[in-house]
Amino acid sequence: MISSGPDIVVYYPIVFNMDDKALEQYINQSIIEETQKLINKQISEMDTPIVSMVGTFEIKNNQRDVLSITLTNYAYHDKAAHGMTYIVSLTFDLEKGKKCELADLFKPGSNYVERTSELIKEQIRVREISLINEFTEISPNQQFYIADKTLVIYFQLYDLTPYVFGFPMFPISVYDLQDIIDEEGPLGRMAQNN
């Protein structure tokens, strides 16, 4: 779908032909709400008018009853030094009919924050990523998406790294977390070899 105005074009996905029409409506409403939140964030970011805005999306995973998408919004304000981009992701467990938070991917009571944080620290070291803020650990509801057999933890621009670095993304194999993932959840289904 496209929503447009003067120099504003925002694309977002819709799901259709699902057997569960209530779930289909819930997913589409969630996508529309998050798309609008991104637009509102860009508008309220600065007092100057927006010169241009482009919203896009990517389907990161649509298999094994797991739908994971990212929504990205770039806007340039009048007289700004550069534009700003934000990204948000939505992951749905279609089998259970719900939107997933990061904690939903792991066994209850597991130390997923500590485990994923340690794997990210190692990637920062190995990839020699320059940080503007020290990384200690992810938040319990850190932003993420699922791409096949990978959990991708990400941060917004300026959260950890300089603007020029882009979005810091940390792909983590489901097999590196296999002992703590919920085997009946999205990552558990991704880890299966069938």
UniProtKB/TrEMBL annotation:
Gene3D superfamilies: Fervidobacterium nodosum Rt17-B1 like, Heat-shock cognate protein, ATPase. Residues 103-173 form the DUF3298 domain. Residues 9-85 form the Deacetylase PdaC domain. Pfam families: DUF3298, PdaC. InterPro entries: DUF3298, PdaC, PdaC/RsiV-like_sf. This is DUF3298 domain-containing protein. The lineage of its organism: Bacteria, Bacillati, Bacillota, Bacilli, Bacillales.
